[in-house]
């Protein structure tokens, strides 16, 4: 028996080694490594008291008095980018997309042994939302403000800028923020349904209350929270977020009331009116339309089917425009093949598009359908291949041979526009760094950042594929949580497919 056991171990080792050798020689990037690093990024963005198992060693506790002046505990949550304001709308969208990725590709994330870290990333956000939702019709929208925060260049552990908290309530509504936070908590409730049913139920309770609040007291949150206007203004308004929240609540509850809301408000709220070529923290229509379209096989009533078909038509407009198969309304591409929406932080639109296209490709494949773009047939395989090309561009298959996912590969941005990464770690040097001292001593340095903000997806190249790795070039070198969030599920799916191809080629 001992000999057989040793022979078996030798065989397993030999096969594993062979797979590693094949993998190394394969053309695909190491998606498993990209997945691991993408989840590390969310730990780098944490605010609050860090847990004992925190893996980003250059970070320490921060924002421990957030909410104190207002008499509420707002410790925790995420910094959205390279600064230290906690903006509610992009934070909630980040959590929604992380949750959606886990719901679609949880098995693949588990196989890559990252499921626990993915749940931790989601829960760090939802724990904060529970704190911020202090009563049914009150949601704390933001901690800090961009103007004073941007005046200083400090580590989060040294912050001297304003941490004033701002809220929405019945007299100061914010349906877009309430709707997105409801969507995040509803989606997360599905994620935790089996592993933590009590927490799942709590999240769903908050999601339902927030949706009711946002729907009953309607208004744009940037009209109530003026300090956000220069940073995360709600250009699309709040109607898309209310539809988005209702869809996620329908998925979480199977309650027809929420589906009826999506059907009855389809026209008035723009769900079947807007043809959109981008999907982002602000503009949710493409995501709404794709989720609605994927409900088509399960809707029963004629009126519902007719409206859902219209949602599907708009969803496929978005997809066809990404595929350059719409008549004159296609998304621009760089010479290297990257989708290009706009100059500032373009990668956010790329990662979200790649996710939506992949999810819809899976839907078409599972229902034995093709896509028709003005009479041109697009197969699910073609759709997925294009989504993969966008991910591969991000990971280094581009004219600059550079990975735009920080820390991945041999060449990536080293001067990311990120306060904490650009200054010596608090754990290395606890000496206080003042507000403008950071600009004088660290921001203007030409050297690479002393800390690598691993897994951050930076803004990326311009429309000609040009990229300048410079801390001051924030349009291209700043990263955001909502850039990386859609990639988590994608990396897991691509990793599994890459492994299957390797096994097939071995056979």
Provide a concise account of the structure shown.
With 507 residues, the chain is mostly helical. It is 51% helix and 4% strand. The protein has helices at residues 2-25, 31-44, 88-111, 115-132, 146-151, 175-191, 197-216, 221-224, 229-232, 239-253, 256-264, 285-293, 302-322, 347-366, 380-394, 419-422, 437-443, 474-477, 481-484, 487-506, and strands at 86-87, 139-143, 165-168, 332-333, 339-340, 371-373, 376-378.
Secondary structure layout plus pairing:
Blueprint: H1 2-25, H2 31-44, E1 86-87, H3 88-111, H4 115-132, E2 139-143, H5 146-151, E3 165-168, H6 175-191, H7 197-216, H8 221-224, H9 229-232, H10 239-253, H11 256-264, H12 285-293, H13 302-322, E4 332-333, E5 339-340, H14 347-366, E6 371-373, E7 376-378, H15 380-394, H16 419-422, H17 437-443, H18 474-477, H19 481-484, H20 487-506
Antiparallel strand pairs: 1-2, 2-3, 4-5, 6-7
**Largest sheet properties:** 3 strands, antiparallel
The percentage of residues in β strands lies in under 5%
Percentage of residues assigned to helices: 40-55%
Global mean pLDDT: 93
Number of E-state strands: 7
| Element pattern in H and E | HHEHHEHEHHHHHHHHEEHEEHHHHHH
Give structural notes.
With 507 residues, the chain is mainly alpha-helical. 51% of the residues lie in helices and 4% in strands. It has 20 helices and seven strands. The chain has helices spanning 2-25, 31-44, 88-111, 115-132, 146-151, 175-191, 197-216, 221-224, 229-232, 239-253, 256-264, 285-293, 302-322, 347-366, 380-394, 419-422, 437-443, 474-477, 481-484, 487-506, and strands at 86-87, 139-143, 165-168, 332-333, 339-340, 371-373, 376-378. The chain has a three-stranded antiparallel β-sheet. A two-stranded antiparallel sheet has the order 4-5. β4 and β5 (339-340) form a beta hairpin. The longest helix is centred in the first third of the chain and has 24 residues, at 2-25.
